[in-house]
Structure formats: C-alpha cells, structure tokens
C-alpha cells in the first residue's frame, strides 16, 4: 500500500512561545520559522506522531584524587 509522509524536522532549535516561533541554529546561521503556522498544517489530522527531544552532552568522568590520610607515621591509633 502506498503511503505519504508529511514531516517537519528541526535540529538545535529553540522554541519561543511568546511569539510562537522556532529558531534553528546551524554552525553559520540561524533561521526563525512560524511555529503556529507549521502546527496549523497538522490541525485536525488523524494519526499524528509528535516527538520533542532535548539532549545535552554528559560531563566527562573526573578521576577522584586520593584524599585519604595516612596516619601510620603520626603515632595516632586508629
């Protein structure tokens, strides 16, 4: 069976609900789109799948320094 896919993708984008826009940032440029207009294209359409994803780089694991104290030479018991 034939199918038609209508899809809109944005990467590295920021949604601004105050002005109903979405701005996509590339290495050299940024472009702003009318988010409300984009969503209107899908208004009352059955079978919609919607995914909004935000990801951040995980911090690198930092090796813990050895902070234990060696009291064997100080004459302390313990």
Keywords:
1 helix; mainly beta; 3-stranded antiparallel beta sheet; single chain; elongated; 78 residues
- How many individual β-strands? 3
Helix content: under 10%
User: Averaged pLDDT, please?
Assistant: 88
Classification by helices and strands: mainly beta
Shape: elongated
- Gyration radius, rounded: 26 Å
**Strand portion:** 15-25%
Quote the distance from N terminus to C terminus: 78 Å
Unreliable runs: none
Order of helices and strands: EEEH
Q: Tally the helices: what do you get?
A: 1
Tell me what you see in this structure.
The chain is mostly beta strands. The protein has a domain at 7-44. Helices cover 8% and strands 18% of the residues. It starts with 12 loop residues before the first strand and ends in a 38-residue tail after the last helix. The mean pLDDT is 88.
């Amino acid at each position: 069976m034939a199918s038609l896919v209508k899809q809109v993708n944005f990467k590295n984008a920021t949604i601004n609900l105050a002005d109903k826009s979405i701005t996509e940032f590339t290495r050299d440029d940024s472009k702003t789109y009318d988010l409300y207009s984009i969503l209107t294209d899908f208004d009352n359409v059955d079978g919609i799948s919607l995914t909004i994803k935000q990801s951040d780089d995980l911090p690198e694991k930092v090796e813990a320094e050895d902070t234990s104290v060696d009291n064997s030479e100080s004459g302390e018991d313990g």
